[in-house]
Design a protein that fits this description.
Length: 122
């Protein structure tokens, strides 16, 4: 099982980025997929998750209204559309898969990607 996160980069405050998380090694269409992030010097935190069907999403308060999670189960890929980026959003973003819903804690996730760095300049 492998998760490959991509799409990170440097963006100015107020800008947008879209991250992708491609899964391989098994079919994930019935599993929860989530995004976490870890800012420099801070612990990893939950960003949001999406149900296996893609019908339900949940977001941390800090990103609600700015970030949108979606998935394409035909491609085994999840996305994180980030709009209105702020310097506080600077972090390494990780995608993960959980065999349960909901899944909001790190301990509830079974597989993790390697992370992609997002840097937001002021």
């Amino acid at each position: 099982v492998q998760l490959q996160a991509s799409g990170g980069g440097l963006v100015q405050a107020g800008g947008s980025l879209r991250l992708s998380c491609a899964a391989s090694g098994r079919t994930f269409r019935r599993t929860t997929m989530g995004w976490f992030r870890q800012a420099p010097g801070k612990e990893r935190e939950f960003v949001g998750d999406i149900s296996g069907s893609g019908d339900t999403t949940y977001y941390a308060e800090s990103v609600k209204g700015r970030f949108t999670i979606s998935r394409d189960n035909t491609k085994n890929t999840m996305y994180l559309q980030m709009n209105g980026l702020k310097p506080d959003d600077t972090a390494i973003y990780y995608c993960a898969v959980a065999d349960r819903w909901p899944a909001r804690a790190e301990s509830e996730y079974d597989y993790w990607g390697q992370g992609t760095l997002v840097t937001v300049s002021s």
